[in-house]
Amino acid sequence: MALTEEERGQRLAVIRKEIDRIDAQVIALLGERARFVEEVGKLKPSADKVRVPERERQVLERACQLAVEHGIDPSFVEQLYLVMFDYFVDHQQKQLSQRPEESES
Ligand SMILES: O=C(O)C(=O)C[C@]1(C(=O)O)C=C[C@@H](O)C=C1
After folding, report:
1. Whose CA is nearest to atom 1 of ligand 1?
2. Which parts of the sequence belong to the Chorismate mutase domain (predicted)?
């Protein structure tokens, strides 16, 4: 039987609450990932060593496999990761530029 306007409104509110809950988890996990990426950044000797294409390929391949397992379009996940890599590389480079020089420590 078709839903009434009111039932549709209630159902929409319930589903959107779930979406908000998941978004909060996604952002919290991104924050956790960012903190580990910062840790990796501390181990890098210089700005030209920040980008690691081979590692990005591995991460991307795994993410695309996981996307398929979870029924998401892997090319969508690939786009997301390419944006994330750019952001994290930029973040590590800023981190490095603020690092005191060896000679000063
Ligand atoms: O594994 C690293 O070396 C990282 O800095 C992390 C990370 C990532 O976001 O997964 C970021 C930049 C690199 O190009 C490769 C991977």
Report:
1. 55
2. 6-96
